[in-house]
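This follows on from our talk about sequence and fold. Please put the record directly below this note.
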Amino acid sequence: MSNNISPIRQDVAPEAAAAASGLDATHGLRGWIVSDGKAGNDAQTRGVFNALGLSYEIKRVDPAGVWRLLAPWGPVSPAERFGTQGSQFRPPWPDFAIAAGRLTTPYIRRLKRAAGGRTYTVILLDPRVGTGAADLFWVPEHDRLRGANVITTLTAPHSYTPRRLAELRCTMPPDIAALPAPRVAVALGGPDGNYRYTPAAVTRLVSALRSFVALGAGLMITPSRRTPPEVATLVRDATESTPRLFWSGTGDNPYPHFLAHADAFIAPADSVNMVGEACATGKPVYLFEPEGGSPKRSRFHAALRRHGATRPLPERLETLEAWTYVPLNSAETIAAEIAGRWMRRRQKPGPG
């Protein structure tokens, strides 16, 4: 018999999901985020814990030498002195602990063993160590991992909940208000193991941006940490004389306001997080695909197209399109599932 489970629905109102799972019971409880310092992983773990309403500490880990090479399969380095008063990992154990990334997996596995039922442990993404390493795993639907303690959603969790977006929309910064509408938020990605930002790919992107401007749109452009400086410079220079905002990387990042106030988005196929954040708005998302790709990313993007969230970014847009879909709010969906399972475990009678 297969132990695969169906993906969690993301079109359920968060309030209904919370009521069904006892999510209110987790507010104010203690949590630990085991962090490898990667921004993408931190965005996902923080998003889930914020949705759970936890008071949490961040435990930074950076194993060295053989202990780094052995992660995620090996043990925690003895230098950590795990469980002793000299360690950041010591009692009192938290109510919840969450981690993402292979370097953090040994710490969650060790915590699960040390704290027993006192701490509910969660791993985001698949570190390929088996599902016994934590109480619960989350993976995106396009991943292959399944099991009785595995939950899936279409997009990754993040902190841009409906409530946060609504709060951001209460005030529009003057420089955004000065742009012509429709306002299009443009998130720049960068090369990874699957996608390449070749000169031809960047030329396609610049051509698309110019066609948006020709149709009367204002652009709000932000590079990411992975955006090569030469790509950012090319996009900045190509849009210099157009109605646009371009974040140079100094000062406060306007990205949250771009998300809240955009009428449409251009998101890079290489970033699951940035695509998912745009799809939390219910607004049109044009997908820019650099050169390359992978079967896993193709499954992800095909699912978003079926949901009605995204469409391919043409090199030249002839008309500004508008479409709507049910926003995808994974953090609240995942948090409700975690809370429900945690509550059911608490309600089980103890031994003897």
Summary: The first helix runs from residue 14 to 21. Residues 1-6, 9-21 have pLDDT under 50 and may be disordered. The domain at 162-312 is CATH 3.40.50.2000 (Rossmann fold).
